[in-house]
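To: structure subgroup
Subject: Chain for Friday's discussion

All,

I'm putting the inputs and outputs inline so they're searchable in the archive.
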Amino acid sequence: MNPSPHLNDSTNQLKKQIFEHYLPTNVLVYIADLSSCRGIPPEVHTPGQLLALDYGLSMPNPISNFKVDDDGIYATLSFNQTPANTFVPWFAVISIFNTATKFGCCWPTPDMRLFLLAEPIDGHTQDSNLPAPKPKLSVVR
């Protein structure tokens, strides 16, 4: 049974399709609730912020045991150079962001507002000597 009543099976299937479509490049998957996930060390999560997990088929440290199915994403990810077998169910995914195209999708819960801070569309920042910021989502309740 889906523990998040605001998300249905068709939404979870859409998340899976978007994730698989983005996969040849690196994909950031944002999750808000770690309690439904397995294997993610709690110390990597900052309260009040969504956790971004980086997936991709050409990562510097290749992801082993990588499987995507109707339930979610299974993968051995590295946290501070320590491998961990993880599982992220689709209903826990709040956003999927393609780092190559700088395009993503969000599925906020009814009780949260999401703010995405990313590189401006034209690719320029105030100071051209600054590196482009990594997209960052925050939860405001």
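Points worth raising on Friday:
Strands lie at 27-31, 51-55, 64-68, 72-79, 82-89, 93-98, 103-106, 113-117, 136-140.
The longest strand covers residues 72-79.

D.
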